[in-house]
Write a structure and sequence with these properties.
The chain is an alpha/beta fold. It has 2 domains: 229 residues, Aspartate Aminotransferase, domain 2; 130 residues, Alpha-Beta Complex (Aspartate Aminotransferase, domain 1), CATH 3.90.1150. It is built from 17 helices and 13 strands. The strands form 3 sheets. It has a 7-stranded mixed β-sheet with strand order 3-9-8-7-6-4-5, with helices on both faces. Strands 10-11-13-12 form a 4-stranded antiparallel β-sheet, covered by helices on one side. Strand 1 and strand 2 form a beta hairpin. Helix 8 packs parallel to helix 9 and helix 16 runs antiparallel to helix 17. The structure holds pyridoxal-5'-phosphate. Pyridoxal-5'-phosphate (PLP) binds next to helix 6. The site of pyridoxal-5'-phosphate has 14 residues, from helix 6.
Length: 430
């Protein structure tokens, strides 16, 4: 008796046949992704190859532990995959050790906390309100509930980290771990300076390069090595791969503790299909073409920032060294939530985002965050980003003039957006 008798079509029928509701939602999502100019900074568009790895039969496999030391049998192929991912991560970022199992960036950070700290230990990270990430000690996150977190911010006048203030805070709070990196901090971080601060108080330095990892990989941004003791990243933002996280380092003893913190500390079995997709994206990032992509991500983000500033919009820190452009809408009297809703209706999704010293609630905000990675992947260059910047200004100026009557303009811009994106097809022409 084959599976076909037990459940007809199980190994042969596609999703559209067996579950039209889910298939339709996925289909509609592909159409949406094809049509819009995706400017959400934490998104990208993976290659067909990465998609294939992510949707592979590795999803059927379960293992615990690390290559060569698993708790389940039948691991020979997934061992090969994980070894390749580790080797590629080390080669790409120029470090000796990598843990490629974190399910996400947050879990990568959680593992670092678990490996290096006891509950109640002092940590120092960037404030969420200044552009930090919630896994860097936010009060409602485990990193802030279980550890004594202090936070540094940015200077009011230029939106940049005040390194002297960080050094003073470190002296006062004596953290065991200092976290550098954020989710909406556009400038490059002075890793050497952070290391000096960490050394002065005997702290470990963690650099979380989630947003700019792709630029580091492509040589378009300084590397956190050799300054950082440990580096975490997501793999799906500028790095352009499957969803997940990675932890990198050079110190063998420290990285052994990190391995134990990931498994059995905070995770069980890894997502092996995701691991294969991470390996595939790391392989892509090692190819020469990735350098051109990384340079384009940066050039495009800067072109967008310049276009917005030319039209009277305030860009936090006056530009960017990363894929991120953070816009302060207070001069236009706009709120982040209304602005992002209007842009979404115009086919330009981005996200509302607090700006430094924002007085609006996190569900409202006074800012917008844009990222250049996804649109760069589909082939946009500086000319297209200037055009998109002009469209953003058109929509936002319209919203400022008439907060309730921007619909016709939004619809007109979406028509132009569709014309533009049709020239840069994803996953083959429709
Ligand atoms: C996106 C991000 C993460 C992790 O995000 P997940 O949603 O958990 O994958 C961690 N740190 C920073 C700085 C980020 O921007």
């Amino acid at each position: 008796m084959g599976a076909d008798v037990l459940h007809p079509g199980y190994f042969t029928a596609g999703l559209a046949e067996t579950d039209p509701e889910i298939a339709a939602a996925i289909d509609d999502e592909l159409t949406r992704q094809r049509e819009v100019v995706e400017l959400i900074a934490s998104e990208n568009i993976v290659s067909r190859a990465v998609l294939e790895a992510q949707g592979s039969v590795l999803t059927n496999k379960t293992v615990e532990g690390y290559p060569g030391a698993r708790y389940h049998g039948g691991a020979v192929n997934v061992d090969a995959v994980e070894r390749l991912a580790i080797a590629r991560a080390g080669k790409l970022f120029g470090c000796r050790f990598a843990n490629v199992q974190p399910h996400s960036g947050s879990q990568a950070n959680q593992a670092v906390f678990q490996a290096l700290l006891q509950p109640g230990d002092a940590v120092l990270g960037m404030a969420l309100s200044a552009g930090g990430h919630l896994s860097h000690g936010a009060s409602f996150n485990m990193s802030g509930r279980h550890f004594a977190a202090s936070h540094y911010g940015v200077r009011r006048q230029d939106g940049r980290i005040d390194y002297d203030a960080v050094a003073r805070l470190a002296e006062e709070t004596r953290p065991k771990l200092i976290v550098a990196g954020g989710s909406s901090y556009p400038p490059a971080i002075d890793f050497a300076r952070f290391r000096a601060v960490a050394d002065a108080v005997g702290a470990t330095l963690l650099v979380d390069m989630a947003h700019f990892a792709g630029l580091v990989a492509g040589g378009a941004h300084p590397s956190p090595f050799p300054h950082a003791h440990v580096v975490t990243t997501t793999t799906y933002k500028s790095l352009r791969g499957a969803r997940g996280g990675i932890i990198l380092g050079d110190d063998e003893a420290l990285m052994k503790r990190i391995d134990a913190a990931i498994f059995p500390g905070v995770q069980g079995s890894p997502l092996l299909h995701g691991l294969a997709a991470k390996a595939a994206c790391l392989g892509e990032a090692l190819k020469p073409a990735f350098r051109a992509y990384a340079e384009a991500v940066l050039a495009n983000a800067r072109a967008l920032a310049a276009t917005l500033m030319d039209k009277g919009y305030d860009v936090v820190s006056g530009g960017t060294d990363t894929p991120i452009v953070l816009v302060d809408l207070r001069r236009q009297g706009l709120k982040g939530n209304a602005a992002s809703d209007s842009l979404e209706r115009a086919g330009i999704p981005c996200n509302k985002n607090a700006v430094p010293f924002d007085t609006e609630k996190p569900t409202v905000t006074s800012g917008l965050r844009f990222g250049s990675s996804a649109a760069t992947t589909r082939g946009f260059g500086v000319a297209e980003f200037r055009l998109v910047g002009a469209k953003i200004v058109q929509v936002l100026d319209g919203l400022a003039r008439d907060p309730t009557g921007n619909g016709a303009l939004e619809a007109a811009v979406f028509v132009e957006v569709r014309e533009l994106t049709a020239r840069f097809p994803i996953y083959g022409a429709v």
